[in-house]
Structure formats: C-alpha cells, structure tokens
Design goal:
Number of strands: 14
Radius of gyration: 18 Å
Bound molecules: zinc ion
Distance between the termini: 15 Å
Largest sheet: 7 strands, mixed
Structural class: alpha/beta
Strand content: 25-35%
Shape: globular
C-alpha cells in the first residue's frame, strides 16, 4: 500500500508536570539548554492535505501557536489522563475559522472523560463560544483521517488500555509499560518508533529508559526516540551522550519526515 509523505513535529516531550517542573531547582529544571524545556507530550502529523494532532495537552494552545498550525483537521486521543486531554477546549479557534466542528477520534474510555471534563461541550443546551466537537469512536481498527491511514496499537499503562498509533513507517507510543505480542507484530517493520521513557528508576505505569531501549531493540526498529520525559531522567545532553545514536531522547520541535 502506498502511503503519502508525512511530517511529524514533536509538540511536547515532557511528562505530566512538564520540564521544568513548577518550583523545582534541580539541574534539569534550571538547565539553559532549550532541549531541557519540555511541554507535555503530543505530536503533529501532517501530509500535503491533512493535519492532525495526537492528544491535546495542557499546553495545546501554546503548542499550536509555536508550531504555527493554522488549520487542524482532527484530534486523535491516546488515553484520558489529564496531561493528554486538558487542552481540548482551545479547538474553539479552529471551529471559528473553519466554521466546522473538530473531528475528535477517541476510544470509549477516553470519551467518558471528555464528556465529564468538557461537559458543557456535550450539553443539550449549549452556550455560545464553546468548542464544537464531533466525537468519532475508535478501537484497534485502522482508520483514515483525510489521506493519512492511522493504525491503532493497544498498549498497557498499568491497567489502563492506551492507544499507540502507527503512521506508515512511523510508530508513536506514549504512556505504556507493556505491549502484548499481537500488538508488537503491528509495530514491527517501522523505521522509527517513539516510546515513553519517564526516568531511570522503575515506575508503575511507564517504561524506564532501559525498558524503552530494550523494547526498541526487541522490535528491531532502526531508530527510536523517547518522549514523556521527567526532570528525574537527567539533562538531555548527558542522557543522549550515554545512549547509542539510534536510541535517543526526543526534544520539543524535533521534526521527522517520511
Ligand atoms: Zn501522560
Ligand atoms: Zn526538576
Ligand atoms: Zn497517562
């Protein structure tokens, strides 16, 4: 199957608190390296005709301004945690200019949280100026957004099912600490994988750096980038120097083309 050329932009690569974390004076949070400034984790996926975003973080508005995203066709959600959905209200700007509701792809679990957290957007009687949302239910079945084929990959975030997404030769997985064998098959053959790597110490619901490297190795993916990074992981430059060239931390504004 042919796949359109796509461009991936990392809008954010930080864990839920972002880096720097409010009030923290550690060596990462006080670093002057721009690559140690991480907004909450999200990517932009663009073909010549279609633009979509994976997750709307608390930084969504600023991420769209920073990446100068004038038009957005769809939002695709990974899971309902706040650091992945909090920015949804700001799709209002796209509603205003497109005069259309935003297409929002989410599984049933995420939809429950959206309807709770953004109840006013789903109310019978809506007041003016609220976000207009067209919810589209997804599971692990592939779907098309414009000319971009999206292949969901179900991963585990402790007990919560989370959707990763494969776009042609690129696979994006955030907020996971386990992947079943059937889902691993969907990832194999990717040229690049993004995996979450929170920190070096063990965590309940996120891969550690070593676990993320091991997963990329096991799946034999030529290039891996790590995201959803905590200030506890260490400075970008130091951590990357300790890793092989094909296993590296991502950074905000990193662009990949396929
Ligand atoms: Zn998260
Ligand atoms: Zn810190
Ligand atoms: Zn999460």
């Amino acid at each position: 199957m042919s796949y359109p050329p796509i461009k991936i932009t990392f809008l954010g690569t930080g864990t839920s608190s972002g880096v720097p974390m409010i009030g923290c004076g550690c060596e990462v949070c006080t670093s002057t390296n721009k690559k140690d400034k991480r907004l909450r984790s999200s990517i932009l996926v663009q073909s010549a005709t279609t633009t979509l975003v994976v997750d709307t973080t608390p930084d969504f508005r600023y991420q769209m301004l920073r990446a100068d995203v004038k038009h957005l066709d769809a939002v695709i959600f990974t899971h309902p945690h706040k650091d992945h959905i909090a920015g949804l209200d700001d799709v209002r700007a796209y509603n205003y200019f497109s005069e259309n509701p935003m297409e929002v792809y989410a599984n049933v679990l995420t939809q429950e949280a959206l309807k709770r957290d953004f109840y006013y957007a789903f109310a019978e009687k809506k007041y003016p100026g609220i976000p207009e949302i067209n919810l589209i239910t997804i599971d692990d079945t592939p779907f098309l957004v414009g000319d971009i084929l999206v292949e969901p990959i179900m991963v585990h975030h402790l007990k919560m099912p989370v959707l990763g997404f494969r776009f042609g030769k690129f696979t994006y997985i955030t907020d996971a600490n386990g992947i079943d064998d059937t889902q691993k098959e969907k990832i194999k053959g990717s040229d690049v994988i993004v995996l979450n790597a929170l920190r070096k110490e063990k965590h309940l619901s996120h891969f550690t750096l070593d676990e993320a490297v091991a997963m990329a190795d096991e799946l034999k993916i030529p290039q891996a980038y790590f995201t959803h990074i905590s200030h506890q992981l260490g400075r970008h430059a130091n951590v990357n120097a300790s890793l092989p060239k094909n296993r590296q931390l991502a950074w905000d504004k990193l662009v990949l083309e396929f």
